[in-house]
Write a structure and sequence with these properties.
With 534 residues, this protein is α/β, with parallel strands linked by helices. It is built from 21 helices and 17 strands. The structure holds adenosine-5'-diphosphate (ADP).
């Protein structure tokens, strides 16, 4: 449970502690909601966020929206004004249920204390079933403080592992037939597959078929980054050239350019694996729709290969993609190794890449930081990267890192954080320090909001510029952690080393070139089309 235990949820929090359960108390309800959903993602269960009434509860809304857009389960319990005093102007009385429900899979107000266990159980089912998502339970103060005869309270069996539906068997055969006809096949893996823990089945499928693959930002790590079949570094060419696309647990939304030209070919065949039937054929018609759980469906496909093998030989298609990936890597090489005294994104990321062990968890927050880090830092383990994903929500870095460390105390967690993004929930680095969560936040301090929203008026100070060289490292130290201030490229690595070895929550505050940017794009429309550059 991640909570900000104001009135009237104190009793819930106390009960939780009495039951010997762990709670992380935070400094802002948004942090609680975001940490809880990351907890869900890492554990394949439902993270819980508890917030106080009224405006305390509305502070969780952005977190709820982020969970909904990214298809992550989350249970938010909002304390609320007393039922018996509704419409009387009670303390923090607000239309919580009405305003929150549109963002949720399910939302309900508790109207009698004895139903609480039952409603929690229903909330869990709703959050986990099919496509996961956020749920909200409104808990009026008089329902929390009410007493009931325990003999009438029904306590249901806990709802745990979500169902794993299989796809229709005929469609599985059909999918292999379509794949067999492919000249330029491509497998795309998204975070729905990561949520499903489909990594073993995906790897077996790739080994058997030799299909080239790429991933979404959070699909990375589901398949090995160093395999020659990984064509992520030739993404544009792969998407444009593919004649059959197998899409597993990802949507043809803006991250994949709606599956439409100019990023994709005019004509290509789409095989889609998704647990949500309404997703099949959205934005591009699906030749075959495999509705089911990614792990199960990939298992079905692997099994079907035994009778109906599909093996893609090495062709010009893969050769061309490999060559393009090599060229792209060459383009960024000078930036990775730049000794230029004004530090750029690539140099910091290269130092982090070379320093971090392969089993690390990488959290990324802030537009350029998210985007460029994908090109530079390979992810070796499933669910090894978490970022704002589809929502483009800034400020997730601190809460996601807290949850990553709560769930994986022995795994190194690094958060790549723009200074603008850090501002959103930055105060909660104190929470990490207080709970002994030794996350290392690397702050990419370019002291401005990114270029595309900057105004260029000669002689006028840019209102988007922040005060340069802010001492976030000193802030961390004042709050009980370890701080490092870096303004020379060669000092990045030793600072990382000291931060990780401090064993404390730490900030490595890197002062950057205020004009630093991503590598130039080959086509102007690449920069224009994908607003976030994904
Ligand atoms: P990404 O950000 O990685 O591109 P998206 O959030 O766009 O991924 O898409 C994730 C997709 O995965 C959603 O359409 C969701 O319905 C689907 N999904 C969620 N859980 C599962 C599952 N267990 N099996 C298959 N698909 C799933």
């Amino acid at each position: 449970m991640y909570a900000l235990p104001g009135d009237p949820v104190g009793d819930i929090v106390n009960g939780w502690a009495e039951a010997g359960m762990k709670m992380i108390s935070v400094r802002h309800e948004q942090t609680a909601g975001m940490a809880a959903q990351a907890h869900s993602y890492f554990t394949r269960s439902v993270g819980v966020c508890v917030a106080a009434s009224g405006v305390g509860q509305t502070n969780t809304m952005t977190a709820i929206a982020n969970a909904q857009i990214n298809c992550w389960p989350l249970l938010v319990i909002g304390g609320a004004s007393e039922l018996r005093r509704r419409n009387m102007g009670d303390f923090q009385e607000l239309a919580q249920l009405e305003s929150t429900a549109p963002l949720c899979k399910w939302a309900y107000t508790v109207e009698s204390t004895e139903r609480i266990p039952n409603l929690i159980n229903i909330a869990m089912r709703e959050a986990l079933a099919g496509r996961p998502g956020p749920v909200y339970l409104d808990l009026p103060a008089d329902m929390i403080s009410g007493t009931v005869d325990e003999s009438i309270v029904e306590i249901p069996e806990p709802h745990t592992e979500p169902a794993r539906p299989l796809a229709e068997p005929d469609k599985v055969k059909q999918a292999l037939e379509v794949l067999k006809g492919a000249e330029r096949p491509l497998l795309i893996v998204g975070k729905g597959a990561a949520w499903s823990w489909a990594e073993n089945e995906l790897l077996e499928f790739v080994d058997k078929t030799q299909i080239p693959y790429l991933t979404s930002p959070m699909g990375s790590g589901m398949l090995p980054p160093n395999n020659p079949l990984n064509v992520s570094s030739a993404r544009t060419q792969a998407l444009q050239g593919a004649d059959v696309v197998l899409l597993v647990g990802a949507r043809m939304n803006w991250i994949f350019h709606f599956g439409q030209p100019p990023r994709f070919a005019e004509e290509y065949k789409l095989i889609q694996v998704d647990i949500e039937p309404t997703e099949i054929g959205r934005n591009h018609p699906a030749e075959v729709g495999l509705v089911g759980d990614a792990k199960m469906v990939m298992g079905q496909l692997v099994e079907a290969l035994a009778d109906n093998p599909v093996v893609f030989p090495e062709t010009d298609w893969l050769g061309g993609l490999t060559e393009k990936a090599r060229q792209n890597a060459e383009t960024i090489e000078p930036m990775l190794n730049s000794d230029f005294e004004q530090i750029g994104y690539y140099r910091i990321l290269k130092e982090i890449r070379d320093y971090m062990p392969e089993d690390s968890i990488v959290v990324a927050d802030g537009a350029s930081t998210m985007d460029i880090s994908r090109q530079v830092i390979p992810i070796h383990n499933p669910r090894g990267r978490i970022d704002a994903g589809v929502a483009g929500c800034v400020g997730t870095g601190v809460p996601f890192s807290i949850a990553a460390k709560v769930v994986n105390p022995d795994t190194p967690v690094v958060c790549l954080q723009g200074d603008w993004a850090f501002g959103f929930n930055g105060m909660d680095i104190e929470t990490a320090a207080r709970f002994g969560l030794n996350v290392v936040w690397v702050i990419f301090q370019n002291a401005n909001i990114d270029k595309w929203v900057r105004t260029y008026v000669d002689g006028v100070e840019d209102p988007n510029d922040f005060k340069p060289s802010v001492r976030f490292d000193q802030m961390m130290e004042a709050l009980g952690g370890h701080g490092e201030y870096v303004d020379k490229p060669d000092d990045i690595r030793p600072a990382l080393d000291r931060a990780f070895n401090s064993g404390k929550a730490a900030v490595v505050n890197v002062i950057m070139d205020p004009g630093a940017s991503r590598r130039p794009q080959q086509f102007a429309w690449l920069a224009r089309e994908g607003r976030m550059g994904y």
